[in-house]
């Protein structure tokens, strides 16, 4: 018997343990307080109350699996479920109800499944509504290799932080004339400084040594130019962190 090879069950077990450690590092109580750029935390032994949007399509199935995973990991969490409404709520101008948004504001933490905005006029995108109403300006997406899972690249450890309320995600577009559609890209100093501050604070709080501003200022000189100017301004306050600017094309080529 070749004892150097692991059975499928042992491989699964090793991956399961890795998942438990990952979840515990993200959501289990460690310190008190909630800070910009830091993980959500709570008092030891305190149950976390979180808002859950199961979403549409495969969303409810995913949400149910997530609840099972959190339960296995021993996370002390209580879910408050809210569903997308059947008609537009005039207070939010979307199918997301005001009560569901208030739930997130009250709990300070939420999880959502895929949401499909119904086709038609007179209402906003569901995701855009969440971003605007809750001030979710920083889209934080960590990408890490998990022990026990074989992937194309090893030791992946990076975090992308995207400004969530401006740029092409403003949702400002209209038809100029028949066959011609115009989309507006909005960049402001306030939002750029805010997300840059978040990124540097996150880097400092999590032991990251480098912050890269990804841009297209070689073409969009005004908009992305303002964004880079704000990033440089914030970078001066964090001399211990290396700051660099990378054109999006080069960034994608390097990462891939």
Automatic annotation (TrEMBL):
Recite the UniProt keywords alphabetically: Oxidoreductase
Task: Establish whether keyword DNA damage is in the entry.
Answer: no
Of the GO CC terms on this record, one is: mitochondrion
Q: Mention one GO molecular function.
A: isocitrate dehydrogenase (NAD+) activity
User: GO:BP terms for this protein?
Assistant: isocitrate metabolic process; tricarboxylic acid cycle
Could you tell me which residue ranges the Isopropylmalate dehydrogenase-like domain spans? Answer: 47-255
| Membrane-traversing stretches | none
Task: Note the Pfam families from the entry.
Answer: Iso_dh
**Which family is this sequence assigned to?**
Belongs to the isocitrate and isopropylmalate dehydrogenases family.
Which protein is depicted? Isopropylmalate dehydrogenase-like domain-containing protein
Which source organism? Aegilops tauschii subsp. strangulata
């Amino acid at each position: 018997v070749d004892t150097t090879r692991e059975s499928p069950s042992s491989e699964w077990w090793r991956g399961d343990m890795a998942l438990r450690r990952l979840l515990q590092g993200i959501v289990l109580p460690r310190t008190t307080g909630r800070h910009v750029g830091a993980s959500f935390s709570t008092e030891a032994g305190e149950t976390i109350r979180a808002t859950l949007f199961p979403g549409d399509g495969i969303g409810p199935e995913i949400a149910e699996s997530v609840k099972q995973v959190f339960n296995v990991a021993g996370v002390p969490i209580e879910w408050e479920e809210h569903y997308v409404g059947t008609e537009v709520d005039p207070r939010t101008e979307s199918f997301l109800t005001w009560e569901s948004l208030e739930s997130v504001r009250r709990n300070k933490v939420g999880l959502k499944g895929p949401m499909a905005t119904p086709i038609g006029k007179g209402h906003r995108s569901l995701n855009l509504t969440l971003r605007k109403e809750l001030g979710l300006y920083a889209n934080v997406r960590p990408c890490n290799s998990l022990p026990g899972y074989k992937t194309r690249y090893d030791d992946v450890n990076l975090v992308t932080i995207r400004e969530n309320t401006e740029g092409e995600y403003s949702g400002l577009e209209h038809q100029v004339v028949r066959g011609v559609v115009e989309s507006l890209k909005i960049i402001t100093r306030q939002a750029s400084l805010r997300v840059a501050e978040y990124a540097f604070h996150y880097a400092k709080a999590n032991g990251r040594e480098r912050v890269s501003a990804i841009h297209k200022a070689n073409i969009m000189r005004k908009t992305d130019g303002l964004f880079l100017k704000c990033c440089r301004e914030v970078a001066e306050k964090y001399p211990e962190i290396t700051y660099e600017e990378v054109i999006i094309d080069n960034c994608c080529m390097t990462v891939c």
